[in-house]
Amino acid sequence: MLCYRLLSCFALSCFQIGLSFLRCFIMKILIHLAGLLSSVTACLGLTFKILHWPGADELLIYGFIVFTLVFIPIHAYSKWRTEKYTNRIEKLKLLVGFACSLLTGISVLFKILHLTGADALFITGALLFITGFLPVLFYVMYMKPAS
């Protein structure tokens, strides 16, 4: 009976470790695929735009949409979950950086689509970057011990 319990606990813990590893592996694959897909489509869109080929606007839009609405949130979530970001100031740095990149990415999308509010979003993202992200980044770098 005791051997059965030990074996079942061992099997359950191995199963949980396997699920955790599988979840991390899938997340890493998803991050890399989203980054690759967004960068390839944006670069193709820029190339098509330079060469005045049809489909350039669509490729640019799809590339920036995937980058802004898929890659940045997934990357920020995976960074949030790592042990490196257990400190509150590190989490603040990540949160402010995520907000800056999201605002800037959406402003680029608005600019490509010729929508109103692109300039206001870009200025807001830039001000948040200058007044929020950079001071926190330099504070973290200053407080980190020299190795």
Structure description:
The chain has helices at residues 2-50, 56-81, 88-112, 118-143. By secondary structure, it is an all-alpha fold. It folds into two domains: 16-81, no CATH class; 85-147.
- Helical content class: over 70%
List the domain count as a whole number.
2
| Strands, total number | 0
Helix and strand content put the structural class at: mainly alpha
Quote the distance from N terminus to C terminus: 53 Å
Helix segment count? Answer: 4
Largest sheet, strands/sense/barrel:
none
- Low-pLDDT stretches are none
> What is the approximate shape?
flat
Proportion of residues in β-strands: under 5%
Radius of gyration: 21 Å
Average pLDDT taken over every residue: 81
H/E element string? HHHH
Comma- or semicolon-separated keywords:
2 domains, 147 residues
